[in-house]
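User: Study the chain.
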Amino acid sequence: MQNTQISNSAKKRIQKEIIRDNLFITLVDNYIYAPIKLHPILQKRAEEAGKEPALVITLKDYPWKSPEVHYFSTPVVRIYMSGTHEGIRDELQNIVGKSVCFCCTSVLCDNNWHVQTTIKKIIDEFVKFTDTKARAQEKMFCNRIQEQLFSILDVNKDSSSLKCLPVSDYKISDFL
């Protein structure tokens, strides 16, 4: 049977991180329970479901290898990959300003993991990603509503009384 306990040196490091970074997390055996504060929409959705938003970070080989991180039993890496669906991907890229793979740019990617990466960095990255993704969803839905509205107006308009610029010339979502 493989030893699932983390080493004493890893425990000491984590305890130092907790104090230094003022983290409100709980270290239990070989994992960390880290309650998090999310974008207001996501926070409200979690509270309505009677759940406390939190990350569970499995520390098996921490800090030598990236830990497994879960949010409501879903691997965070899968959540990062879900940002690549077509509708949301375009808005995410507009917000970030470039085409990126969030999974591949994460500190949790084995290619990006470094021994000096901290628990705080993992938590902050997840919160920032979910905030960015929520903003992208807001913008995407705003664009869809605006497109539907103008398609209705276009069908019903009297061409002599209503002259409109193309929707692409004034996207409301650009002001969100």
In short: The beta strands are 26-28, 31-35, 54-58, 68-71, 74-75.
